[in-house]
Amino acid sequence: MKVFGCGMMRLEIMLCLAFILIHCKHSVAQTHSQDYGALISLTTGWKNLPEGWTGGDPCGNGWEGVTCINTRITTITLASMGIVGQLTGDLASLSKLQILDLSYNKGLTGSLPPNIGELYELTTLILIGCGFSGRIPDSIGNLRKLVYLSLNTNSFTGEVPATIGNLKKLYWLDLSQNQLSGSIPVSNGNTPGLDLLVNTNHFHFGMNQLSGTIPPKLFSSDMNLIHVLFDNNKLTGSIPSTLGLVQTLEAVRFDRNSLSGSLPSNLNNLTNMNELMLSNNAFTGPVPDLTGMNTLINVDMSNNSFSATDVPQWFSTLRALTTVMMEQTGLQGKLPAEFFSIPQLQTVVLRNNHLNESLDFDTSSSQQLQLIDLQNNSITSLPRAPSSNFTLLLGDNPYCKNSLTAIPYCNNQQELDSTSSYLTPVFCVPPSCTSGMTSGPNCKCAYPYTGFFILRAPSFSALGNPNYFTRLQQSLLHSFINMSLPVGAVSLSSASTDSFGYLTMKIQIFPAGQDYFNRTGVFSLGFVLSNQTYKPSQDFEPYNFLADDYTHFGGGQKSHTGAIVGAVVASIALLLLLVCAGGYAYYQKKRAEQATKQANPFDAWDSQGAYGDVPQLKGARFFTFEELRKCTNGFSEYNCVGAGGYGKVYKGILDDGLIVAIKRSQVGSMQGSREFKNEIELLSRVHHKNLVKLVGFCYDQGEQMLVYEYIANGTVLDSLSGTSGVQLDWIRRLMVTLGSARGLQYLHELADPPIIHRDIKSNNILLDDRLTAKVADFGLSRLFGDADKGYVTTQVKGTMGYLDPEYFMTNQLTEKSDVFSFGVVMLEMVTARRPIQGGKYIVKIVKTAMDREKDMYALHEVMDPMLVSSSTTQLVGFERYVDVALKCAEDSGIDRPTMGEVVKEIETILKQAGMNPNADSMPVSQSYEGADGRNSHHPYTDDSLLQYGMSVPLTKVVTV
Fold first, then answer.
1. Are strands 659-665 and 703-709 parallel, antiparallel or unpaired?
2. How many other C-beta atoms can be found within 10 angstroms of the C-beta atom of residue 625?
3. Among 169-178, 195-204, 569-578, 926-935, which stretch is predicted with the lowest mean pLDDT?
4. How far apart are CA 265 and CA 868, in angstroms?
5. pLDDT tens column, 800-858
6. Which of 234, 487, 587, 663 is in the most buried spot, having the most CB atoms within 10 Å?
7. Rounded distance, CA 923 to CA 527, Å?
8. Residue 374 and residue 366: Cα distance in Å, rounded?
9. What does the DSSP assignment read for 856-874?
10. Is the pLDDT of residue 937 over 50?
């Protein structure tokens, strides 16, 4: 019996050890077995994988290019690695995969596996610049969560899958530069089609072999398309009039097809259009009337068969034009002199037409002019030589045969220059670099990440103007630094326009702090440029980036991590047996605590303290402290983009690629806790495009943080003071005023219950990358329910200069208090002055200076000099705008309008100016040149999201 008992004891010990070993394995190996097996099977036979992939655990050992949530692989990004191999059906077993980016690996060939449609969690599929071929599988339509689909620059054949129409969340669709054929699919009965993609912003289908007609059903007024690119295909028939229903359109390319017939008469409904390119087709009928398309920058209708048409009146009325190309379009008559005075006009190509009479220039000709090509017309005289320094080509006109003074303009029969020798300027002495290395603009030798930056619809064609390339180079560098990417310099060179109408330039991106990029740096750069996280100004959109392989990862040193780990594990195996049981128990305990925390993040909230009851939220996302610490690189000072009395604001990039602003309060701040509670409660219940969006919050480890959408272009105050580089002309100021007014109208009239903001000021109105106004900072806001009977009695809080005097005197807060503050902001828009400046109050300054009997109310002396320098005819509705602002700023609340009435007034002014008040945004024109050569602003500085209560000076911290 003793022997039997001893044997049983040994058996129990062995079972216990086996149990411990099994659970130790699960606590050390952090990747789900299904995902681990699928990844190994998928990449078996692949060449040039990152060296760290040779052993260990993908999630636990942090394989480069792999991101996990808990034990599941959610992201694989391997751009520009020179990978050679094929995608197999093993891919479908990565069932929790959300992002797959294998771009710029030309050695990835073969077809896409049909079961790719089983990746039901996939939101981003980017395979740009690979060597894939075959048909795009119909199962792609099963990826119902897909937001980004970029399969461009491969060798895919066959038809565009109609099942793509099932992807209702799709934002970006790019199938360009393949060999796709067949017709454009639209829905028919139970068959889906592209017309169902009403939420998609981008249709990129250029450089394929698509044929047949453009279905009228493809377009509708429900769609939110911005870019429609079908250039360089084999499409026939006419452009349907339904295109004119999509009023969100900004860029349209149908050039280089075989289209015919008359152009739709309702094209000029597209009042947000920037680029319209219809050249090299067989269109007939009259040249279309583009009157009212006041944001049009680039128009090209060359080489069509339009009937003889007098020079259109819209030539001179579209003041945003930079490029007009209408070679061989049947134009006749005299070019008006005022056409050449369009402020930004650069390139005019009207050769091979029937233009006649004299060619007149006046002293107001655009200073931006680079080229006017009027060869082979019927121009008889040139009464006055042009004063500006640009190229004028008049060969094969009667004038050249009859005038001795015509020689300078008649012998130069050059073609439009399609290349540029531009090179990013260098202001230092380039060193001599070793073989394979390159000296960048910062005069440091390094191995740059290289490729080609391709503009698919450039809004300029004057390649001799270096300002455009300098702006792009500065924009790229600024954005990379702002995204915390390890970039030290950017160089552009060898710009040229190819036969497809694309502007291509060589780009070199140089590392910061060392002479090479590590793999994470290359993955990050590739992902930012492949999924279009980087957004350039309107002049450079839409774009494509094609990268070269990158092989200079620190001199090719071999990794021995797997062998070292194996040796260490073998040497301490006995110790692991002893401690693993305790570790597993602790791990289980932490998992339980984490689950409880996720379910109830406010379990430690002091309801009886100064903060009040537990916050009541509607759908805001909870973040752990570790999640936010990770996405801000440990809350590094490099990522700190603002500071104030509340705390600091950091820029972060979440695992899904979303860029956010994280407001972190000072630990133990009672005032911060009150505002924290107030802001998450209010912002979690309101949703409007003109209100800053709350992504989520953190109440963990004694920390209080708010996570907002990241706003790129600073505050209205930054723009008016000139510190942001964003210039607001009169129309843009009207659009910003309208947007912020609509945000306030929503709070007052549509939120349930209504909300009084209580701190409206120019520093609390932010501008996104398309200059859409977003009202921010709800720390002082108050709910305004029916029980309040018209007002809320409350302690006076706000910012001096914007504070409603009636509220200040009576402590009675009403929605008209916000109206007063908004009136002050409107006057700031006119004067670019602070509300109280030099002891003088802006409302009194305007009232004292104005004279209603005189033009512009005689306010020229107090107006923003930028507006004064503009032609007064361009400040349409100025007097009406000032009237509205002063009505808002009346001393008595009963005399002020509601925000709904203010919105209607601003909409009326915009209509008078020929603008569409329902347009979402205006093109951005900005400069990034600060004192140090970088952008000198940031939206989360000073008190833009931080200041509460009375206006208190804050220390301004800006890091870019």
1. antiparallel
2. 16
3. 926-935
4. 37
5. 889 998 888 888 889 999 999 999 999 999 999 999 887 889 999 999 999 999 888 98
6. 663
7. 25
8. 17
9. GGG-TTTS-HHHHTS-GGG
10. no
Same CATH topology for 39-212 and 716-912? no
Tokens matching residue 528: 């930012």
**CA–CA distance, 573 with 708 (Å, rounded to integer):** 46
The owner of tokens 């209010």 is: 682
Above 50 in pLDDT, residue 456? Answer: yes
Contact 495, 463 (CB under 8 A): yes
> Where is average pLDDT lowest: 36-45, 453-462, 638-647?
453-462
CA–CA distance, 339 with 777 (Å, rounded to integer) = 46
Instruction: Give the distance from CA 473 to its chain's centroid.
Output: 17
Locate the DSSP E strands across 605-748.
Answer: 621-622, 640-643, 647-653, 659-665, 694-700, 703-709
Q: Which residues are catalytic?
A: 759
Identify residue 296 by its one-letter amino acid code. Answer: L
Q: In one letter, which amino acid is 170?
A: L
Separation of alpha carbons 782 and 51, rounded Å: 56
pTM of the model: 0.58
Q: Closest Cα to residue 938, out of 570, 733, 633, 641?
A: 641
pLDDT digit string (tens) for 852-887? 998 889 898 899 888 877 544 478 999 999 999 999
Backbone angles phi, psi at 472, to 5 degrees: -65, -45
**Does position 448 have pLDDT exceeding 50, yes or no?**
yes
Name the token pair of 612: 């009040």
> Sign of the CA dihedral 102, 108, 111, 114?
negative
Q: What's the chain's length in residues?
A: 960
Q: Topology of domain 39-212, per CATH?
A: 3.80.10
| Candidate ranges 21-30, 554-563, 663-672, 775-784; pick with highest mean pLDDT | 775-784
Fold of 716-912: Transferase(Phosphotransferase); domain 1 (1.10.510)
Helices 730-745, 815-831: axis angle to 10 degrees equals 170
Angstrom distance (rounded) from CA 529 to CA 161:
26
501-518 residue pLDDT tens: 778 888 888 988 888 888
- What does the domain layout of the chain look like in residue ranges? 39-212, 419-426+437-465+501-553, 716-912
Q: Which pLDDT does position 196 carry in this prediction?
A: 95
Residue whose tokens read 């079908």: 230
- Count other C-beta atoms under 10 Å from residue 925's C-beta: 18
Mean pLDDT computed over 212-241: 95
DSSP 240-251: -GGGGG-TT--E
The type of residue at 273 is: M
Whole-number Å distance between alpha carbons of 486 and 658: 18
